[in-house]
Amino acid sequence: MAATTEEQVERVRALVAAIPPGRVATYGDIAAAAGLSSPRTVGWIMRTDSADLPWHRVLGASGRPAAHLATRQLRLLTEEGVPIIDGRVDLRTARL
């Protein structure tokens, strides 16, 4: 796998920063918009460099947050008015 460049990291960061309150994107959405070949690269970037970003607005393709983040992420999204059904974000409604 090719190394992730600083430009790619900054592109992902800019895309995540641009997600407005009440909306979400998937890792795949961000990867496609950033020109990355894998959503996993977005996950790696988010895991290592997202403390100052609205990280809670990025989800897996299922709309479910990761188990270790679920309580906090769903609370933050609920506070923004994101529709959540049975612990899963309604991507049809909230996705960019």
UniProtKB/TrEMBL annotation:
Query: Native species of this protein?
Result: Nocardia mangyaensis
Q: Is the keyword Methyltransferase assigned to this protein? A: yes
Tell me a Gene Ontology molecular-function term this record carries: methyltransferase activity
Q: Per its record, how is this protein called by name?
A: DNA methyltransferase
* Taxonomic lineage: Bacteria, Bacillati, Actinomycetota, Actinomycetes, Mycobacteriales
Keywords for the protein's UniProt record, in alphabetical order: DNA damage, Methyltransferase, Transferase
Looking up Pfam families in the UniProt record yields: DNA_binding_1 (PF01035)
Domain Methylated-DNA-[protein]-cysteine S-methyltransferase DNA binding residue range list: 10-82
GO BP field: DNA repair; methylation
SUPFAM superfamilies, A to Z: Methylated DNA-protein cysteine methyltransferase, C-terminal domain (SSF46767)
Does rRNA-binding appear among the keywords? no
